[in-house]
Design goal:
Number of strands: 9
Radius of gyration: 20 Å
Strand content: 5-15%
CATH topology: Spore Coat Polysaccharide Biosynthesis Protein SpsA, Chain A
Number of helices: 11
Mean pLDDT: 93
Number of domains: 1
Distance between the termini: 21 Å
Structural class: alpha/beta
């Protein structure tokens, strides 16, 4: 039998998980999520004008940070937190004291499964994070730890124990997560296809991580979940989550940690303006043809045994190799270092990170 059948019913992790929400508006969308979110602690990161009052529905346990708070808490190191971009959410990751993070955008609503039942996205993310990953050998029945599934014939027994899952990447119904050129040529396209599956992304394979429906084990991978320098004052936007995903995946592959994608779905309600998006993305669309080969070939030395150590090494490679593409990447590499320094200041115990148990495919 698969490992998952031996696992006790998934705990709610009520005291071990924070929900991080970046926003510029009142959080009325929380009413729909109340049955699923109300027992958890929320960290709200307010972007834009810090004098604007953000209203949160009654009955939620939350803390709210605006730009003034970020500047006060981080001082000069606040320069690493983006402004006027959803990348500001990663400040919430830094100030959290919980083991797990779930982050969601304020235009994401509760989706329904094909039977019409509301999907508890958070519960599915928790299931993903608490079951192992299998990046070293692909299982054709997808997640072998799910009830009713197992490892198929020919799957090496030495790899069936799996490795810890660091990241759970959820998907979206309705408005797809498209770049601006695709939005422009497919303005009416909607994702109506519900695929009832979770799979581990193989080792050595990158993917475009979306931050609107995402959960991760903060203790395992938190310092790598930096959403970069985007938005106000920067030449690029809308690449924040993807940048974090590429860095994170390289480090997970090195440290023997897993990444899952698929369930849960949320309902993405609002399509952003493709012309505004194109202005934010156009340099990224050009640069990504250099970025992807860089991350595909990036390797980390064996003496990098902590997430922080891996991330600082990666920042050196970003500066040395991508700095030739554009001066922006020199600035970004410096911000990556500032981010780790700020993380360790706010998380001094985690700053002395315990070495990850590296798992090597046999």
């Amino acid at each position: 039998m698969a490992q998952y059948s031996k696992v006790a019913p998934t705990p709610l992790l009520k005291d071990e998980l924070d929900i991080v929400i970046p926003t510029i508006r009142n959080l009325d969308f929380l009413e729909m999520w109340r049955p699923f979110f109300q027992q958890y602690h929320l960290i709200i990161v307010q972007d834009g004008d810090p004098s604007k009052v953000i209203k949160v529905p009654e009955g939620f346990d939350y803390e709210l940070y605006n730009r003034n708070d970020i500047n006060r808490i981080l001082g000069p190191k606040a320069s690493c937190i983006s402004f006027k971009d959803s990348a500001c959410r990663c400040f919430g990751y830094m100030v959290s004291k919980k083991k797990y993070i779930f982050t969601i955008d304020d235009d994401c609503f509760v989706a329904k499964d094909p039977s019409g039942k509301d999907i508890n996205a958070l519960e599915q993310h928790i299931k993903n994070l608490l079951s192992p990953s299998t990046p070293f050998f692909f299982n054709t029945l997808y997640d072998p730890y799910r009830e009713g599934a197992d490892f198929v014939r020919g799957y090496p027994f030495s790899l069936r124990e799996g490795i810890p899952t660091a990241v759970s990447h959820g998907l979206w119904l309705n408005i797809p997560d498209y770049d601006a050129p695709t939005q422009l040529v497919k303005p009416l396209e909607r994702n109506t296809r519900f695929v009832d599956a979770v799979l581990t992304i193989p080792k050595g394979t990158l993917f475009p991580m979306c931050g609107m429906n995402l959960a991760f084990n903060r203790e395992l991978i938190g310092p790598a979940m930096y959403f970069g320098l985007m938005g106000d004052g920067q030449p690029i936007g809308r690449y924040d989550d993807m940048w974090a995903g590429w860095c994170m995946k390289v480090i997970c592959d090195h440290l023997g940690l897993g990444v899952k994608t698929g369930l849960p779905y949320i309902w993405h309600s609002k399509a952003s303006n493709p012309f505004v998006n194109l202005k934010k993305e156009y340099k990224g669309i050009y640069w990504q043809e250099e970025l992807i080969p860089f991350f595909q070939s990036a390797t980390l030395p064996k003496d990098c045994t902590t997430v922080q150590g891996c991330y600082l090494e990666l920042s050196k490679q970003v500066k040395a190799k991508l700095g030739k593409v554009d001066e922006y990447f020199v600035k970004l590499a410096d911000a990556m270092v500032t981010w780790v320094e700020a993380w360790d200041e706010l998380n001094p115990v985690e700053g002395k990170a315990v070495e990850a148990n590296k798992v090597v495919a046999k």
